[in-house]
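Researcher: I'm preparing a figure for a lab meeting and need a structural model of a single chain. I don't have an experimental structure, so a prediction will have to do for now. The sequence is pasted below. Please return the structure as tokens so I can convert it later.
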Amino acid sequence: MADPALPYGVDREGHVVVRVGDQVLDLVEATGLDVGPDVWSSGSLNAFFREGPDAWFTTRGELIATLHRQPARALRPLSEVPLVLPFEVGDYTDFYASREHATAMGRLLRPGEDPLPAAWLHLPMGYHGRAGTVVVSGSPIPRPSGLVAGPDGPVYGPTARLDVEVELGFVVGRGVPRGHRLAAADAEAHIFGLVVVNDWSARDIQAFEYRPLGPFLGKSFATSISPWVVPLAALDPLRVEGPVQDPPPRGYLKVAEPRGLDVELTLAVNGAVLSRIPARHLYWSMAQQLAHLTANGAGCRAGDLFASGTISGPEPGTAGSLMELFQGRRWLEDGDVVDITATAGAGEMELGVVSGTVVPWDQTWDPSCHHARDRSWGREDR
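Model: Understood. Here is the structure written out token by token.
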């Protein structure tokens, strides 16, 4: 991989920054860029999104060419740059694009039935999430409450089955007007880049509410994303052929190979690695997901976020949720710290980390008290 990832973020001053190894380049102070400083001081990446694909491509080339000539004031140590949510999320859609995960969950939730819904092999299934509960990595995750099944009827209370979902997210940089339909072959021209996602799930709330309409309160309370957005151009060396799609997708969902990404995701709880998940097996690609999102003319806007849904691999130890890993025997407790890391090239390229700590709903969060519970999460617990 000749070129670095150079992901974009936003610091607490509202400046757009780029990660360069263990340093951060402040683009307000940078030299040699065609895009003006007003875009870099706007408080989010949305202004840069609106500059369009030509500007995204040109800026990346300028950064690669001129990084060694940047003034000292433009570079700061990574450890000294607190980051905020990098873009304003207009809409959030979560897909269900991993065949391995969909099959495993179908067997757990609907025993005796076909694990894959009838439409699953024909289209990328998904649900519309809550943009307002998308939070940046490091944000606390208050334990959600809701109605769950009880022996004498539904009971309201905090979830006892709090889970994680290891996902890749994709950020729309170039919108699609309402009433227009995007073909998968053209979709990547509208995608700015990639983030790492944890779509937290309350499985007991989900189980009680989800049939026949699907996820609602069991998933709408929090979705964490990494603070760095990796530009799509940085992913070009990671392209791999995806799994065979049978039956062949309909015309608007057809894409040329390689459609997959050779990315590995690592799930850890309280520092213990529980799973290593290869994203290359993802059945529906990012381009197919975005095309299907607009297939009914819904359109999308710059800053919209869509995610893959939980990614799981075909081998033991490659599942992307606790429900699959522990078969419903173990869930997150208050104080547990979850970290999801995405890397590529045998760990050579870091694509991002998303972290979150579970806190009681009524706890006043004090960042100085941030610590993991003394609770083992070793693989032997399975």
